[in-house]
Amino acid sequence: MRRELHAEWTKLRTLPGTGWLLASVVALTVGLGAAADALAGCPWRGCGHDPARLALGGVQLGQAAIAMLAVLIISGEYGTGLIRATLTAMPRRIAVLAAKATLVTGLALASGSLAVLGALLAGRLILPGSGFTAEHGYTLAADGPTLRAALGSVLYLALVGLLGLGVGAAVRDSAAAIGVTLGLLYGTAALPYLVGDPDWQRLLWRISPMNAGLAVQATRDLAQLPLGPWQGLGVPAAWAAAALAAGAVALTRRDA
Amino acid sequence: MEATIEVKGLRKRYGPVKALDGMSFTVTPGQVTGFVGPNGAGKSTTMRIIVGLDAADEGSALVGGRPYRSLRSPLRHLGALLDAAALQPSRTARHHLLWLAHSQGLPAARVEEVLELVGLAGAARRRAGGLSLGMRQRLGIAAALLGDPPVLMLDEPFNGLDPEGIVWIRGLLGSLAAEGRAVLVSSHLMSQLQDVAGHLVVAGRGRVVADTGVAQLIAEASRGRVRVRTAAREEAMAVLARAGAAVAATGPDTLTVSGPAAERIVELLTAQAVPFSEVAAHRASLEEAYMELTRDCVDYTGDYSGAAR
Fold this sequence. Notes:
The structure holds two protein chains of two kinds. By secondary structure, chain A is mainly α. Chain A has helices at 2-13, 16-39, 51-55, 59-80, 82-89, 93-126, 144-171, 174-190, 198-207, 209-213, 229-253. Chain A has one domain (2-253). Chain B is an alpha/beta fold. Chain B has eleven helices and 13 strands. The longest helix of chain B is centred in the middle third of the chain and has 16 residues, at 163-178. The chains are: A mainly alpha, B alpha/beta. The A-B interface holds A 3-4, 6-11, 14-17, 76-77, 80-85, 87-92, 255-256 and B 48, 51-55, 68-69, 71, 73-75, 80, 82-83, 85-92, 95, 98-100, 102-105, 143.
């Protein structure tokens, strides 16, 4: 797979769009997080907010940029016809998909780490001013749960990237693939709030990659979550695996 | 590796459309093989199957005796130009070739070499989307030559080229074949292949309708026909027709005569004192020969040619 990786990396770094999308992952995640930090308030003891979730809330927006980058890495090639050059030069199609998946993962981890670090830093600076103080019992501490939230958020972004790549390979059309991916992320996240039955709510929450996946950001009141933090991260992992499998089948079985 | 393409019994359906119906031919080294036929004859589909983009329902396609998809560095075995527009418009010409080079384990220096070879060195840093159709065609040819392959396969390489570009590519194809490479070139314009192609594979309705040497094909199409140049066209036609020859006016002062040999024609015209300036064996153009060959397998024939006959 070494040559596939080298070629795909050269492709990726010679497209102007790549840098912009990665920069927007960081900007959106830190920007939305900082805004939420500033607008939230914790004026008394027991205000009920989770400072880590608040500071890392921008991941909900930053993931859209990762998803688009990942979808376009493959569906963009179908749009321009470049995929025919790709598969003529590299006929081992699974190796091409694996190379793209490796790069998506690497870029998501790198940009995600920067984004999460920036968001936590913004939280440390802004949250005390919004009332998240030791006195009120809500600080963004550099402790185990916060570390899990940070690490989990980065991994979540990588899983969103793999989900997007799989959908892009399966659907091929850029607009449709972006629609499906964002629909899977945001559409299923909204579903639990549209039904009244609590059992249904729990079920829908558990199968939503975003709701369940972002449980990893929780640092307080874990018992109230339908799934534990790491278990929750398993949901987007399962979605990503299913999408990649569908993408691999479409890529190998269908004519290019 | 032997420089060949072997296509055997390819069949392919796209839904209700039968694109290939038992396509079989072999491309041998050392000459340019023209791959011609009307639109929809299956030329492009065959080429896509050879490089493994599409899977055949039946039959096999081998490059140097091996299936393309089993080749480790395929561009070092076969260079293909299938669709010059298959580019990412925002990537530069040089970077397009660079990723291709990396995919074959070739050094970046090879990119500069092929850019020079196709005359694109000056446009290397321009975005592919901004290149003219002719320049994109050259870029596609650069990509095909990147791995210095013993087999080349070009789909309609003359498209979008200006006259200078056409002369250039005809020369390039000839010299690649002279180096002992196998070169397969599809075209719907026979005149482009004249004097370049040594062999011709004619496709029609998804199969091969003729697989023949160009010299032989032209000889057959020219057989027994004589060109007569005369100022007195009408009289000459009358005299020759009376002697039982089939005569067609093929120009303001030229006739194409089949039936009698050149000596007999001279005799007939002289006897009736019909003036003429030339009587010579007619040499059919590749285009004429091709038209004769495919008359029966063109799907859509215009009314005009039917009425003229």
